[in-house]
Specification:
Layout (H helix, E strand, L loop, with lengths): L12 E3 L15 E9 L3 E3 L20 E2 L5 E7 L16 E8 L4 E5 L8 E10 L2 E8 L5 E5 L4 E11 L1 E9 L23 E5 L7 H10 L2 E6 L6 E6 L3 H11 L4 H6 L11 H19 L4 E3 L24 H6 L2 H9 L10 E6 L17 E2 L4 H4 L22 H10 L16 E6 L6 E2 L1 H11 L16 E4 L1 E2 L7 H12 L3 E5 L23 E7 L15 E6 L16 E8 L5 E8 L2 H18 L5 H9 L4 E2 L14 E2 L1 H12 L11 E4 L3 E4 L4 E8 L7 E6 L4 E8 L5 E7 L7 E3 L2 E6 L3 E10 L11 E7 L5 E7 L6 E8 L3 E7 L14 E4 L10 E2 L9 E5 L5 H6 L6
Parallel strand pairs: 2-45, 3-5, 4-6, 17-19, 17-21, 18-19, 21-23, 23-24, 24-25, 31-38
Antiparallel strand pairs: 1-20, 1-22, 2-41, 5-12, 6-11, 7-10, 7-12, 8-9, 8-11, 13-15, 13-16, 14-15, 26-27, 28-29, 30-32, 32-35, 33-37, 34-35, 36-38, 37-38, 39-40, 39-42, 42-43, 42-44, 43-45
């Protein structure tokens, strides 16, 4: 598979999700490339992966638990015997990895994997040592691609990643206190229980055809009915047998074990260290999963609480990956906006529609499936469309890996309106909105303006080539695409005016052609440079303009776009925008997942979704009224020069201000029930192992007379000072950490803000490593490609030395090359699979950047980070990166 480049050109429009690079035509032979691969200090590798090149150390039970730090991100593999690729653990299996870690209250353990859940399933267990036994204090045993447990008490824990079925790569991320999202699974005290050991609830739906299968299974299993009935329309409470051998044999039978295994009925060795009560609790959880998977029942549970999805609610939501979105949603004041929406009575009922004109959408993504309204595919060139035809009513993205999809549109759509408050995946800025997917970009993320024009007309309910219009036109059209060096012509201006006259607001990406580090700022791309279009530039996690972001007088707003060259948010991942994506499994099947991109493409849907929030509050608000509010400073938090400037436009979009403005406009200038408070953004700071200085901003969520008094800290290692603060104490503050007097360990001090009404606390997380420890994430494979043909020219295996990986590859005969490096922990011959370490020079973005060769090239340094729950660009296309 050749990599798909989303590059802007003069005659085509392309997605704006990441910086591209240059190239060269001069031929060269025999040149070398060299550099250093750095590793985030909190990145850890499972000590017994399936890669036979790793120096393996068993971590198969709590006695062998691998020690890790409290803000680690672990990359690893687990597998039951004979599952997964051939390798170090294939035959005998490596079903469990154990880790020992000291955690603070409020930290969250997040387990992610991407193997097909039809055949592979991972679970998460948390224990504490009491006397000579391990006591279960937390678990997450669902059947999705994500598990989590929130820690409620400080202390030392043993964490188990278990392969319940099959094999998979995984990421185990430990979020700092206050930095995680909401996780419904919390640890309990050693004396408490989260379930009744040995008891299960099973039932059948009305009219169920499973009656005979359920009866046969109950008869064959060591189960007894305590209450109720296992019958159509009924639930029964069942008990497991007291005899452990019988229970073990029953579990093995449900798992399809052979006769010899059934006769032996031995429990796994790691269970020997559990207390009898904890062993029964684990077996009860496993039984519930096996019975549910058997297909004999319509309902099986250990009586966990259930909840319904909501359209609005308070933040943080219970979506487990929200922790990876926290920085960019807090930057736009989304939590305060949601509080204002929750206060509305009655709640609005008309869901706003955001048309996403892009590469299409992964319609079966679990965080998008219920959020989609009818769209259209306007890619009229059959070869570019890649779906066997041109114009059609199916805007679904590519389903074949050889089509080189980036899933750019799916990422944009998730930022706009991913299902929220559903305990799954990520959150959207406007979860009450619906996405109208309009496919206008085909192979390589490229399309023509004609196709985009037709898509824009469709979104606005105007006549178009499809000979159809949507049942209700879009409220907002999101164009995360553009072309550089193109002026807005009169025909484009006329169309935009027609679309706005329909009531559809247009938001477009400013582009990514700048290199602000060297002082070069590119002009705003087309069509964002057209009058009537809200042009959006990108900010980084520190509220600065992103290094790649275009600028100019046409800018309307700035919004988070990220900078994946650095990792400053405490998540352990690069500072990208986290959202919905997809990848391909080993069999080439498209699989929904999540990950990061950067770019003004990612900034734009933040703004489009904020406009959707305004339409939710006030469905009749017009594009002209939105323009007036924008110019009055009612939609943004001013940044840069006062008022409008060419760097930020009118400032960074502020969802809370925008919602209040819409409420006030609807009510004739009165915004009911909104009393502002002082808040900190971000709401927590994680300094990790090396960061020594970070900033936070004190701001108000709405007009208020609350003012800031004293701002202080509670640690000799921490100091806080104002950077730019007004008379009310609002503004930027810098927190500095001095680790010199700290012993190795994790510290959780806090900043205290005394206001005229209350005390506000900002939790910090600081880690100091043992001076002798150096990052080592196992074997890393460097691949050098011919940039023109994507052919592997040379490759090498590296081992860490002094905490870094150094490479030099000679004898390269190509005009230009690209450099990528990654791990192969599952030993499937593919680097950079989801769950592994990966990086590329200079940054792993939407495309790999060519390095011209006319001489030896040194200093090609870059960062290795985890993909999957980290940089999903690699996850979405690295299935061809065979070593």
């Amino acid at each position: 598979m050749r990599r798909a480049a989303l590059l802007a050109a003069l005659t085509v429009l392309a997605a704006c999700g990441g910086g591209g690079g240059g190239g060269g035509d001069d031929s060269a032979a025999g040149y070398s490339v060299s550099g250093t691969l750095s590793v985030s200090a909190n990145l850890v590798v499972d000590s017994d992966t399936n890669d036979p090149n790793q120096t393996r150390i068993a971590n198969d039970d709590s006695a062998q638990a691998q020690p890790i730090a409290a803000t680690s991100q672990v990359m690893g593999t687990v597998n039951v015997p004979r599952a997964g690729a051939d390798g170090a653990s294939h035959a005998a299996g490596d079903p469990s990895d154990f880790f020992r870690v000291t955690l603070a209250a409020g930290q969250t353990l997040q387990l992610d994997f991407t193997a097909d859940t039809a055949a592979n399933d991972l679970d998460l267990y948390v224990y504490r040592r009491v006397g000579d036994a391990d006591v279960l204090v937390g678990s997450s045993t669902g059947s999705s691609l994500s598990e989590c447990v929130r820690v409620t008490e400080p202390g030392e824990y043993v964490v188990q990643v278990e392969a319940y079925d099959g094999a998979s790569l995984y990421n185990l991320r430990i979020a700092a206190a206050g930095a995680g999202g909401s996780c419904a699974n919390a640890t309990s005290s050693v004396a408490a229980r989260r379930l009744v050991p040995g008891q299960l609830i099973a039932g059948l739906a009305e009219g169920s055809g499973r009656v005979r299968a359920a009866g046969a299974l109950v008869s064959a299993q060591p189960l007894s009915l305590l209450k109720g009935r296992v019958a159509p329309g009924r639930l029964g409470l069942m008990a497991l047998a007291d005899d452990e051998k019988s229970r073990r044999r029953g579990l093995l039978a449900l798992a399809g074990a052979d006769e010899a295994t059934l006769r032996a009925a031995r429990r796994p060795a790691w269970m020997d260290r559990l207390s009898p009560d904890s062993r029964l609790q684990v077996e009860t959880l496993q039984y519930a999963k096996r019975l549910a998977a058997s297909g004999a029942f319509d309902y099986v549970t250990v009586n966990r609480p259930l909840h319904a999805t909501a359209l609005v609610g308070s933040f943080p939501p219970d979506d487990p990956r929200y922790a990876l979105q926290r920085w960019h949603y807090e930057q736009i004041a989304l939590p305060a906006a949601m509080d204002a929406l929750v206060a509305l009575s009655p709640q609005p009922s008309q869901r706003p529609i955001v048309a996403v004109l892009d590469t299409g959408i992964v319609a079966d993504h679990p965080d998008l499936a219920g959020q989609i309204t009818a769209g259209y595919d306007f890619v009229q060139d059959a070869a570019s469309a890649g779906d066997g035809n041109g114009l059609d009513a199916d805007p679904d993205d590519f389903r074949a890996a050889d089509s080189q999809p980036s899933f750019h549109g799916t990422h944009v759509a998730g930022t706009v309106a991913a299902a929220t408050y559903n305990g799954t995946g990520v959150a959207g800025v406007a979860p009450m909105a619906q996405v109208m997917p309009i496919r206008v970009l085909g192979k390589g993320g490229e399309g023509t303006f004609y196709d985009i024009l037709q898509g824009l007309r469709y979104a606005a309910g105007l006549a178009n080539d499809s000979a159809s219009v949507p049942a209700r036109r879009a409220d907002v059209a999101n164009l995360s695409l553009g072309a550089s060096g193109v002026a807005c012509d009169s025909a484009s201006a006329t169309l935009i005016a027609q679309v706005r006259a329909q009531g559809t607001m247009i938001v477009a990406a400013a582009g990514n052609e700048s290199d602000r580090d060297s002082g070069r700022v590119a002009a705003v791309d087309y069509p964002a440079n057209c009058a009537g279009v809200l042009a959006v530039t990108a900010t980084d996690a520190q509220r600065g303009v992103a290094y790649y972001a275009n600028g100019g007088d046409e800018l309307a707003l700035a919004a988070p776009g990220g900078d994946m060259r650095v990792a400053t948010t405490g998540s352990g991942l690069p500072d990208g925008i986290y959202s919905t994506l997809a990848t391909f499994d080993a069999g080439g099947v498209r699989t929904p997942t999540y990950g990061q991109y950067q770019g003004s493409s990612m900034a734009t849907p933040h703004v489009a979704a904020v406009l959707a929030l305004m339409r939710w509050v006030h469905p009749a608000i017009t594009p002209e009224q939105v323009d007036a509010l924008l110019q009055a400073g009612e939609l943004s938090d001013d940044a840069g020069a006062t008022g409008h400037d060419s760097q930020y436009g009118w400032g960074i979009v502020d969802a809370a201000k925008a919602v209040r403005a819409a409420i006030a406009l609807k009510n004739g200038g009165w915004a009911p029930g909104i009393q502002g408070v002082v808040e900190a953004q971000p709401s927590a700071l994680d300094f990790g192992t090396t960061t020594s200085s970070l900033e936070f901003t004190l701001r108000v969520t709405a007009p208020t007379d609350e003012t800031v008094g004293a701002v202080g800290d509670d640690s000799a290692a921490v100091s806080v000072a104002p950077v730019a603060v007004d008379a009310a104490g609002l503004g930027r503050y810098r927190v500095t950490v001095d680790r010199s007097g700290l012993a190795a360990g994790v510290y959780t001090p806090q900043i205290t803000v005394m206001t005229s009404r209350r005390t506000l606390t900002l939790p910090l997380s600081i880690q100091k490593l043992d001076a002798t420890s150096t990052p080592d994430i196992g074997p890393i494979y460097v691949l050098v490609y011919d940039a023109t043909g994507d052919k592997v020219l040379k490759q090498a295996m590296l081992r860490a030395s002094g905490g870094v990986y150094r490479y030099r590859i000679d004898g390269l005969d190509a005009a230009s090359v690209t450099v990528l490096a990654g791990s192969d922990y599952d030993n499937d011959g593919v680097v950079c699979s989801s769950g592994e370490a990966c990086g590329a020079y200079p940054v792993l973005g939407v495309s790999l950047t060519p390095v011209p060769l006319g001489a030896d090239r040194s200093g090609l340094d870059f960062l290795l980070s985890a993909v999957g729950s980290g940089n999903a660009e690699a996850a979405s296309r690295a299935a061809s990166r065979k070593r």
